[in-house]
Specification:
- It comes from Shimia abyssi.
- Keywords: Membrane, Transmembrane, Transmembrane helix.
- This is Frag1/DRAM/Sfk1 family protein.
- InterPro entries: CWH43_N (IPR019402).
- 80% of the residues lie in helices and 0% in strands.
- It is mainly α.
- α6 crosses α9.
Length: 255
């Protein structure tokens, strides 16, 4: 087994900025998607008496939507920046360590670029759905919503394959550990299950099932939040690799 790679100062800086950016987005977006519903409930008791709001409905309130939109304009691009810096660092060290074949490097490069393209699309969807809100911009809001959910799902599942490819090389060096890769291989089932369940509920809510309609809709709006959180959790499952690599660099500087 090859000793783990020690990142350069430039790589450690990129990982630090990337980790700080993604952690910021993780905290802010998770906080917002839950609190906007609570704020909407306080401001709109009559609506709440009929049914619980989705995030889309919650941000349609004029006192809630603009602030949410401002944070999405910040978080969308910041997420792309943070992930790009981290994935570029992982790939760059792999190339410099010369522990992968040209075919493996090419395959990982393609998967990494594809994942980041999906994230650009998802971040664009975040911005679009927050800027174009109900009730005046229904069509554009739905474009942003579909773009976000599908692209974020594709990003998540593409990074699963990125992680799996790295796991086959972890014993030979690089920045990613085999243990972290195995953890992500198990964790992927959380967003996978929630994505399938959410899609089922999204379709099912369009039909009437009698007495269970209210419970079905309540489940739908709840799973919506859990699904978005699961995407963010899987994204942050890469953080331990970055933290360990940064600590490895700092330790090398002190010896």
């Amino acid at each position: 087994m090859t000793n783990p790679a020690i990142p350069s100062a430039r790589t450690a800086l990129a990982l630090t900025i990337g980790l700080a950016s993604t952690t910021f987005v993780f905290v802010v977006v998770n906080y917002l998607i839950y609190t906007v519903r609570w704020e909407f409930a306080v401001l709109n008791p009559a609506y709440m008496a009929e049914q619980p709001p989705t995030v889309s409905r919650a941000i349609s309130d004029p006192s809630i939507g603009p602030s949410f939109a401002m944070w999405m304009v910040i978080c969308g691009p910041l997420l792309v920046l943070g992930l790009s810096l981290q994935y570029h660092s992982y790939l760059g060290v792999l190339k410099r360590q010369d522990i992968a074949t040209k075919a493996q490097v090419f395959g990982l490069s393609v998967l990494t670029v594809l994942a980041l393209v999906f994230q650009v699309m998802a971040s664009s969807g975040m911005v679009i759905l927050s800027q174009f809100r109900f009730p005046n911009h229904n069509d554009m809001h739905m474009v942003g919503s579909y773009l976000f959910f599908f692209s974020q799902a594709f990003f998540t599942f593409t990074t699963f394959f990125v992680s799996r490819a790295y796991s086959k090389l972890a014993a030979q060096g690089g920045l990613l550990s085999a243990r972290a890769c195995r953890f992500r291989a198990r964790l992927i089932w959380l967003p996978a299950f929630l994505s399938a369940f959410y899609l089922f509920l999204f379709v099912a809510k369009s039909y009437s099932f009698g007495t269970i309609d209210d419970a079905l809709y309540q489940t739908y709006v709840t799973v919506e939040l859990f699904l978005m959180s699961s995407f963010l959790i899987y994204m942050m499952a890469w953080a331990p690799d970055s933290v360990i690599a940064i600590r490895r660099y700092l330790a090398s500087r002190s010896t």
